[in-house]
Amino acid sequence: MANIKSAKKRILVAETRAARNKAIRSKVKTVTKKVEAAITAGDKAAAQAALLVAISEIDKATSKGVYHKNTASRKVSRLSKAVNAMA
């Protein structure tokens, strides 16, 4: 355990940020699964609606620094490609 005050604060801050990042990543995974579920069900309208929500959540996560911009771009691209392939 840390003895120095600043080190103790760093530990607390790191825990707080880790919890926040974990919650944001979890939200992105959830909305991604909803898109994939709509795709497997064959419901194009639901898939497109879920895709908009997923893109929004991924962009929010990127702006907060949870995901790198290229990672976010790749996730959006793969989801969009899957939805567009439903034709």
Automatic annotation (TrEMBL):
Task performed by this protein: Binds directly to 16S ribosomal RNA.
Domain of life: Bacteria
Protein family according to the UniProt entry: Belongs to the bacterial ribosomal protein bS20 family.
InterPro entries registered for this protein in UniProt: Ribosomal_bS20, Ribosomal_bS20_sf
GO biological process: translation
Protein name, UniProt field: Small ribosomal subunit protein bS20
Organism classification: Bacteria, Bacillati, Bacillota, Clostridia, Lachnospirales
GO molecular function, one term: small ribosomal subunit rRNA binding
Gene Ontology cellular component annotations, sorted alphabetically: small ribosomal subunit
Keywords of this entry: Ribonucleoprotein, Ribosomal protein, RNA-binding, rRNA-binding
